[in-house]
User: What shape does this take?
Amino acid sequence: MKTYLLTFLLLSISVLCSCKFLFPDDDCDYVFCDSGPFYSDLVIKVSLNNENPTGIIEVFVGNVEDGNLLFSDTLMSEQKSYNFETDMYYSAKAYYKEGKNTIVAINGKWLRAPQDECDCEYDGGSTSLNLRLAQ
Amino acid sequence: MNGRLFGIILVLILVGTSAKSQPVLEKFLGISFRQMVSKDDILVGLAVSPPVTGKKLYGFMVFDFRPYRKKLRVQQTANFFNQYAENRYMIGIGAGYQQALINDTFGLYLQLSSHYTWGNYGGTEIQPPSEFLFVPDAGVFFGGKRATTVRLGYAYQRATSELRAVKSLSEHKISISLTLDI
Assistant: This one.
């Protein structure tokens, strides 16, 4: 019984210590966070090879099926950064030829703004979206 | 920031105090850090069980996930493929039997677990298949000091046709786990 009580006590304290409720961060009491919008880099990575010397991509807001095409681009290098508004889900397609086959690589991620020690969001940071061909 | 630091120090002191009185405490939980590795896939996870040291039969609950997105090609028409980036998760329950050969420091184990696996593809509404799997796992274990057990074995994870068609899960895996009884 003592074991369970001690473990429960330790776990409870661990949880509470991680909460600002028990140990409020004094430095952040009078900080007013910027409400945004914030912008962060979306780094799109593609494969380039003899058959695909350039990377043709399409970037969407939401899933690709939603059809909200943001833009198309032709990449001359294996990765390129785009600065987008955060707190949005972005998806992208990359088109490849492989012999007679056409391969469309699809991927998507949430773009989140980084946070400081007072949990205030700010511009910056990056999220990578891998559209490289499977090995 | 100072408050958070104070909290962490308080927890460390309490944990340290409880460590001193460890012989009095009964161990009541086994926590396992697991990996299932194959040539083209890795699943990592956590299993919880009653303490396993010195026991022959044990049960466990497990949660595994793939710590990255695996690229899968799905054929749409004769010459047209979509390549998706798949997240995969598993939960399961299982039971095992272990036979010590040299005290509790070395032995053999055999375990069978039933898993439900599901996943999602990034950037699309299309979802990969979900299904139930049976995963037999057998190998050797090494018992260490402070009630730690390391298992090294072979696991067979045969998916049904849908998941096998997209090569989401590899059938043959090496399973590695480190169990701590606390």
